[in-house]
Amino acid sequence: MTRITVAKGDGIGPEIMNATLAILKAAGAQLAVDEIEVGEQVYLAGNMSGISNESWDVIRRNKVFLKAPITTPQGGGYKSLNVTIRKMLGLYANVRPCMSLDPFVKTKHPGMDLVIIRENEEDLYAGIEHQQTDEVVQCLKLISRPGCEKIVHYAFAYARQYGRQKISCFTKDNIMKQTDGLFHRVFDEIAPAYPTITPEHWIVDIGAAKLADTPEGFDVIVMPNLYGDILSDVSAQIAGSVGLAGSANIGEECAMFEAIHGSAPRRAGQNIANPSGLLQGAVMMLNHLGQAKIAERIQNAWLKTIEEGVHTYDIFKEGISQQKVGTSEFAQAVIDRLGQKPTVLKAVSYANNPTLQLPAYSRKPTAQKDLLGVDVFVHWPGSDPNELAALASQIATPNLPLSLITNRGIKVWPDGFRETFCTDHWRCRFLPKHGQAIDKHDIISVLLKANANGLDTIKTENLYAFNGKPAFSMGQGQ
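Now predict its structure.
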């Protein structure tokens, strides 16, 4: 018997959780349940994160959390509970299977059967944002080598365990050569350790277009956080319905399982919501816990129910569906079919494998790190880059002359174009003429002179070379 934590959530959450728990119990899942309250009422009681310290204790003790959708109140600075849980518990891998149920659920892609594995903790979802000038705000995109290695190893190990043949990596490293470039490099480094799986890489925009047009061409897709969030919802929808998709969030110690849809408060209390997404999350949970035979029994019964046309309102189609049912009636239909297998849809067979075994992260030897210069970002309301260059040259030092000025990443000085539109947010780069290393006293001198000359510095970024290779972006147009 495994003890898990359960939260029934908000909106349709209690209805679909009750339906899911009824199916788990009827199928013989070896589970003991500790229920906690999270979400809207906890937020409104004054807890800005939507979860109490006592609930955290229960989740951390049990290690496995089955969560229904919640409602985050509008305004007031409330934090996303999903993001908070993923980060606080180190749930670095988000796993979302997307499979067609054609011809019983309408889709243009009857051969679709893929899994999206999304990095779950970093990227733009680090949530570090600042307003820097009247006209410009910033969000930091953070990609780490440990984060890349963990998610890429997980994707390959998942593919191997579940008999998948190919992994596609999506990035935008033709533009973001440092951040997405690291993700792609790590993918290429790790792929040879899994010789039975074919690796490929797509630039995310054309990869997304291909995914939307020909999803049957993909098997497992691994990608950074933001792309994965967007494209996993796209994939679920084109497979048939976002309401049918479940999600696993896996960490080294804890795991959380859920539906990918929201709490749909307008549908609450009407016994019409489809519990399938949360049930799919629960099936993934059972596999994670080593209760594969129970997971298999439930999944085949669910497929049989879909196949026989017993559908909730969201997927009901005249001429395809046979019976429109509510939430509890759908759950009972699945229970009634436990022990049966589908005859048209492909029955599942899960190996009773333990949780994926992944290599521990091993920190690479420290690189030779040389300070080469500094980018000084300034808030300046003028519009003529040549005028700003005259001001910025006054704060340069003999060791750190002004090298270039960019605006929104586009070089505007020297030799900029008058057609380039500029905001009030400028990057002034100071680099030694011959590429020699400097020390931080040179940067301090630049900043002291900027302060003395009334130039409003809002941020600095030191420019480094690692093992002799410059590790910073150039301004577009150089």
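The chain has a mean pLDDT of 93.
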